[in-house]
Amino acid sequence: MGLLTATGLIGRASAQTKTLPLAGLNLSGLASNNYVENARIGTHYRDITEQHIAAAGACPLFRLPTTAQRFSTGQGGPLNPGYVKQVEDVLNRVAAAGKLAILELHDYMRLPHRVATKSGYRRDGAGRLVGPDGRLVTDPADDAIWQDTYRKGAFLYQGYFDGADDLLKLYEYRVIGTPGCKLYNDAGLPDLWARIVSRFRSHPAIFGWGLMNEPYQGPEKLADGRDLDMAAHWLKTATNTTARIFSRDTQHYVFICGNQFASARLWPELSDALGDIPDPYGRIVYEAHNYLDNDGTGGGAWKDRNEVVKPETGIWMTEPFVEWLRQRRKRGYLGEHGYPEGNQSAQEATRRMLAYLQENNVPSTQWCFGPGWPADDVLGMSRDIDAKSIQVKGNMAAVEPFFKARLADYIPPI
């Protein structure tokens, strides 16, 4: 496959010309552990090498998770040059291989900031966290640890033992666009995306922009005590951010994730309002996610790796999303799906789902390929043997036959 710019792909796509990629992979590594301060690539998150991209074979399209936490130096401030360089290095490797990428923020509409620290903690010889009393610590964010230090609010929390200074740290996640977050008001995410787009819009690997991974309803409250309505907040934020991107770039696709972890099965009832976001250039693509475990309610946890999946499960789960796209005449994309290596029933259900999506002009990317995944990760599709060797796992089997297929558009036929 020769080097194709995303602009060229989009500009030439027509009913007669099939140039748009159908199936690809999530290529993860750059977004890991976004709460770690002074994080180092290779330690807290991973570089994606030429070997990883080559190991993906004929895969034409990658969804590339990144993080606003590392891109941003603060609302209204310049992009972090070190992280920009790391992302650009990966995009250069993708382009050199003749492939394309959706540059995506994988932050769930929340960013962490440190609110408390404790000393006296350590790792034992087995790498387990041990408290000052000598007891093992299973949850470093547990209320019992922090009750005498920090009063938690209606937020999500992450505890982390930082070996750089031997401190146990508590991080509080604040919703993007709300007080206390690094991006603290309605202008925060649009401004960040304007900077990212201006920096990367001419890069030959860019296929599109993924606004935000999986916004979902959490415990957060408004100042008056009412629940923060994430669906309404995301609609406003996505609308403003898309308009800001269009002010910088009208050539590439803008991928907008649905509500409540982007559920394909529940799309019409949870994400219908997103279809009203203005799309004057025909570049919006709506992004759903779909995992087959636990009769479609497991969210990709696959607590039973050998769970027997009915062959048509993926079809009936994605049908509500596909029919919504068809009726609303919208472009769509299945940004995440995946199954455990060795589960033959899930492999067959995934193959049938992908064939159904192909019939309806819906592209997809499977989760997850790339560095840093444990060998036994339930959805991991690759494993680093050493710096030069990447093992591709058996759960590539369902998607791989679709890599060479192309589409003329991403709107389902009538």
Automatic annotation (TrEMBL):
<dbReference type="InterPro" id="IPR001547">
    <property type="entry name" value="Glyco_hydro_5"/>
</dbReference>
<dbReference type="InterPro" id="IPR017853">
    <property type="entry name" value="GH"/>
</dbReference>
<dbReference type="Pfam" id="PF00150">
    <property type="entry name" value="Cellulase"/>
</dbReference>
<dbReference type="GO" id="GO:0009251">
    <property type="term" value="P:glucan catabolic process"/>
</dbReference>
<keyword id="KW-0378">Hydrolase</keyword>
<comment type="similarity">
    <text>Belongs to the glycosyl hydrolase 5 (cellulase A) family.</text>
</comment>
<keyword id="KW-0326">Glycosidase</keyword>
<dbReference type="GO" id="GO:0004553">
    <property type="term" value="F:hydrolase activity, hydrolyzing O-glycosyl compounds"/>
</dbReference>
<feature type="domain" description="Glycoside hydrolase family 5">
    <location>
        <begin position="59"/>
        <end position="371"/>
    </location>
</feature>
<protein>
    <submittedName>
        <fullName>Transposase</fullName>
    </submittedName>
</protein>
